[in-house]
Each structure stands twice: as C-alpha cells, then as structure tokens.
Amino acid sequence: MSILILTACIIFLILQIAWFKINPFIAFIITSLLAALFLGLPIETISPVLQKGLGEMLGSITLIIVFGTCIGKLAVSSGAANVIAKTVMNWTGKKYVRLGLMITGFIIGIPLFYSVGFVLLVPLIFSVAHQFKLSKVYLGIPMLASLSVAHGFLPPHPSPMALSSILKADIGLVLIYGIIIAIPTILIAGLWFSTRFKNIKTESDHEILNVEEIKNEGKLPSFGLSLFSALFPVFGLTITSLLPLISDNEKLIAICKIIGDPSIIMLLSLLLCTYTLGIKMNRSMSSVMDDYTQAIKDVALIVLIVGGAGCLKEVMIVSGVNETIVATLNQVNIHPFLLAWMMAAIIRIRVGSATAAGLMTASVLLPLLQSNDLDPNLFVLSVGAGSLMCSHVNDPSFWMFKEYFNISLKDTFKSWTVMESLVSVLGIVFIFILNALIH
C-alpha cells in the first residue's frame, strides 16, 4: 500500500508540473505534504519533517550552486567566455570547426548554466556559419551536445550536485567519471551525429545577438587566465580527489579533505575569479557584486526546487516507505543503474525538466543504493543520463533550439530530440563500461 501511495504521489507531482503548470517548488511541497498524510505520519510531525528535509538539502548544495552561478555570470560579463570561444576557434580553423565548437561548448558549459551557455554560444555558431557558409544546425549540434552533457553529468550544475548530495556520492569522483563518460558521448552524439545535417536549411536568416553585455570596457582577460579562472573548480575538485588515492601521507589527505570540500573549493574559486576576472580587469567591486546579485536571483528558484525534493526524500525516510521500496526493487531482475536510468528517462519525457526528473528518481531510488554494493558516483551519472532523454515539446530547451535556429518542427525532432536521446543512451552505455573497468 505504501508503494501505491508513493506512486500516486509521484504521478500527482508530474501532473501538477506538466498539466496544471504549477511551479515545481510548490508542487514538491504539496506532494510531500500529501505523501506524509497518506503514509500515516502524525500531523504534528509533518511540518518539522518537511523543514528538516528542506534544510538538510539546501544546507548541502546551496553554497555550491550559488557560488558556481556567480562564477559563470562573471565569466560571461568579463568576456572570459568569449575569449575562450574565439581562441579555440582560431586553433581549429575551418577544417575542424565543429570540433572547435564542441570543445568550446564543453569548456564553457562546465561553469555556466545551460540556458546562459546556450544564449552566449548561439551567436558564435551563427557567426561561424555565416563566415564558412555552413548549416547552422550542422555546426550547432556538437556544441549544444557538449552543453547538454555538462548540464546533466558534471558538478557544479544543480542536478549533479543535488543527486550527489541525495545519494552521498563523492563530487570530485562524479566530476572525474563524468568527464570520462562525456568525451566519447559528445564525440558520437555531437560530432558524428551532426554530419547528417550539412544541408538542413533554416526557414529564414535572422540574427541572434549576444544579450550578455561585456563590462570590462575593452580590457579582456587572456586565454590562459580565462581558462584557469573558469575551470578552477574543476582543477581543485579533481586534484583533491586524486591525491588521496595515490598518496599515503596523512597530512596531505587531511588537507585535501578540508580544501577539497566542494563548498570550500567553490568559495576559493569565487574569490579567485573576483580578482582575476573582476578587479584585475579594472572592474569596480560594486560592479562585480551587481553581477553576483543578478546571478543569485537567477538561481534562487532552482535552489528552492532542489530543496523541495529534499522534503519528499525526508518524508520517505521517516515514513519507512524506503524499506518497502528496497524489498520490492530487490525482486526486480534488472541492474540498478539501468533501473535508475529508465525511471529518470520516463519522468523526463513526461515532465520535460531534466533537473526535476533527476531529483524525483533519486528520492525514490535512494534506498536501492543503500541496500546494494553499488558505486554511488556512477549511480548519480546513471540518473543524470536518464534525465536527458528525449527532449520534446514540454521542454523549454526544445523550443529555444527551434526558435533560435528557426527550423521546422520536423527538423527540430530529427536533430535536437534525437541528439538528446543519443546523449542519454550513450551515457548509460559508457557508465556500464566504466563500471566494468573500475570494479
């Protein structure tokens, strides 16, 4: 009965978001409240349970997501993102222009939210398409596949961060494994798949301007400084995760544990970028802080949605339904990674939001991870891969792609939807391969 109640609540959650267009945060709170009532929690304990779930989830990921968003905002407004893009494009030239765009999308996609990276990079795609007289879709798919993979697989993006928190994964290892899986995925789903769209035509040729203003008044950071500043969180998390694996020095391990805490790494990165991309570029402190204020406003709703998922998770734990789920799922003859991928994919297709799909799946499948000898880092990536499946008409990114590239609905399905599905399927395939190699 408890599983039936939880299933009904999940369906109701999906209907609230997809059908009634209720804000996902409010939908999560309503669903958590109903689940608590129907699962028999004493009425006087429901509010404290929801508060605990919200607080624990926000306490673990808020700093990381907010700091990461501020770094991404500064990378755009300082011109660092443009410097990285133009430098990579100059290196690759016309012969390998799609490879250059793919690399650019991956580098810039790590610190930037998907929608920001999309709007920032689309003008670059159009400029290159005009310069070399090539199809915009042909050039755009490799870059946008990179952005999508970074959004679904790699910290400090909200979904991988929240999944890592829920599933108790090591964020540094999630990042390392995610990059390993991402490279072959984008080579196939981006570079190889895009060759089918050499002749796809846009319905008209309109210009999309870069809406992000560069505020450094003509003084741009160098490529090396831009790359180092934007990717410092990646370098920090990678180094502090790998050093304890290759060294027995207790002091070094202790230092890595302190500095390698994702919140500390992100704070150090933010302070570094404030100087290298702000003060050093003759920006006033108040101007940089204005960027950070706007970034925090932009990410506030995403953080609250993640907190709402924490409420539902806590209700499941307190009510004991997680133990019932464990007993039931252990009887299903399917690998937990594949089960996680399938569940996330189904919810993604129904809801449209990759973040919401990932959070719903992780909340339900957390007990399965705790009862099996599974790698939580790869479990995070399995959910992330499923959450990217089959973007279609209920996904805002689908319409962004269609309208920016100004192509028909049929061509949008053939290019964008198939590319996203390839990313998802290839992701779970490479996760199983990496799991076999590691374990």
TrEMBL record:
The keyword Chaperone does not apply. Signal peptide: none annotated. This is Gluconate:H+ symporter. InterPro entries: Glcn_transporter. The chain crosses the membrane at residues 30-50, 57-76, 96-125, 137-154, 174-193, 223-246, 252-278, 299-318, 338-366, 378-401, 421-438. It is found in: Cell membrane. Its main location: membrane. It is a multi-pass membrane protein. Belongs to the GntP permease family. The keyword Transport applies. Keywords: Cell membrane, Membrane, Transmembrane, Transmembrane helix, Transport.
